[in-house]
């Protein structure tokens, strides 16, 4: 995509001032236009809600290839999948777990997790300490809730949070070369550890299914394959068809990288 006719910026996205009060800078970016080129990081910035929705829903022209999503999860992971029919079929397997009645049953579990995280933080506040609520509460809580929905026992939640943080930390584009090398190594180690753990959990749930998300997925292979037009056996992914993958890459514009 030709970036000669679009506005550019050199805004420091890691500036402490921006982190503490991002709204003026974000407003200035939106005023430049819906699409802005960051000349230092060599990235496109999509600045409006409407433009973001257009990109996110346009599976024909936009892809996750080459992005942090692919770095973290892989091109054939559910969150990175741009085969809409297959994505929707797999999503339907988990749909019952996100219906109001099922979420209501999860309320006590979430409340217990909130209490577990808040209690030590509030005690430290009472003692006069300065507490980082982002690191100690808002960051781990969503990961812990999803992990519990997947059937991860409480004693392994800290591991999942640690792996998740390392995976995210190793996928930023804004580190210098030395720091990025260390972060990427930590990310890949965390990905391996999380994959090994989840594969073991999947084997357990195949043998003894529960009511968690992993049980729903591993015991619904035939259903998902039928909805994807398959046979009920393994549905080949693009990762096992490098020729198909290369063709898709050549035919799809790679804008907003």
Task: Describe the structure in brief.
InterPro entries: Cyt_P450_B, Cyt_P450_sf. By secondary structure, this protein is mainly alpha-helical. The chain has 14 helices and three strands.
Description:
By secondary structure, the chain is mainly α. The chain has a domain at 99-219: Cytochrome p450 (Orthogonal Bundle). It is 58% helix and 4% strand. The chain has helices at 16-20, 23-32, 49-57, 68-73, 84-94, 100-105, 107-126, 133-138, 140-149, 157-169, 177-207, 213-218, 221-227, 242-251, and strands at residues 8-9, 35-38, 43-46. Strands 1-2-3 form a 3-stranded mixed sheet. The chain starts with 7 loop residues before the first strand and ends in a 6-residue tail after the last helix.
Q: If you average the pLDDT, what whole number results?
A: 79
Oligomer: single chain
Q: Could you give a short account of the major beta sheet?
A: 3 strands, mixed
User: Strand order, biggest sheet?
Assistant: 1-2-3
The CATH superfamily of the domain at 99-219 is identified as Cytochrome P450
* Broad CATH class of the domain at 99-219: Mainly Alpha
CATH architecture of the domain at 99-219: Orthogonal Bundle
